[in-house]
Amino acid sequence: MGRIPVPLKYTFKDGLEAILRNYRIEKGIRLKCYFPMGGGSGYSPFQHIHEVDNIDDFPNMVLSSSFDNVFEKNFFEKFIDKGYFQACQPKPLPPIYADCGIEDPEKRFTIFAVVPIVFLVDHWRLGGLPVPGRWSDILDPIYHDKIIVGGWRKDEKSPYSEFNTFLFLNIYKDHGIQGLKHLAYNTKNMLHYVHMSRIAGSDSELGAAIYIIPWFLADICPRRGKTSVIWPEDGALAFPFYILAKKAKLEELDVLIKYTTGRKIGQYLSDNCYPPLNPEVEYRYPENAKLKWLGWDYVRSNDTMELIRLASEVFFEAWQPLLFTKIET
């Protein structure tokens, strides 16, 4: 069972279907895969897979580009800490990933790619203010009403049902509740990432000076003469694409794992600014780029989903309380 961002879905699924077809012809074995297509489709099963009580009711392999409920403390205690899953991390690990510590030291999660979260700066709207260089910079009150973060809602009368909880968690980890309040003070608006990329550098009244946005969408902004992609000095936030594969099923999952972590799909991900952890691909990282990962000690010693709920509530309470949709467990 898998999901990845919409821009990657069709190429990823086409390759997956070819692999499965050839495997069925060569081995006479049909592997069942569920890979929903379209924006926002198929999310319900992912919202509830962590609720199973028996490991046999959990999919043999989950591939996800969401920092989701399998990171809840209860799921760790029930299944992950008991050794039901085994990482299949490609080696050797490229230095940018080794340096940020994103490989799971307990070898349960396979991290096969990341979404780097960066700054996209509109120089005209920034005016005479300094270009932010680090994550702590965006908390400075000189940037009041000059930041846009990722978020989506059905219409202007509805609260936000999706937003960048990973950003909130990172700010909370490094700067606490006060840091979230500073971010809220500086936030002008929440927009879908695609919309950010389209309006950055324009005279749209929805625009702002600083967009916190995935590298891929910052990179395709059409007004690059008026904007710059700023890679934070302390590292772009490394939002993980992960695999959870059952240890007892690794042999039959091998063809799927090799496809997902392999060079061909890895180069496609790298070319589209979703860099993989495969050491064989050519990377597009800027010179001296760093990644910033939460840290596995932090993930394992906290209920990160509970912290996400707390951080989101703090942010919206300081920003616009009526626009908040409470995060369900």
From TrEMBL:
Name the UniProt record assigns to this protein: Spermidine/putrescine-binding protein
Pfam families on file: SBP_bac_6
Organism: Methanosarcina acetivorans (strain ATCC 35395 / DSM 2834 / JCM 12185 / C2A)
Record's keyword terms, sorted: Signal
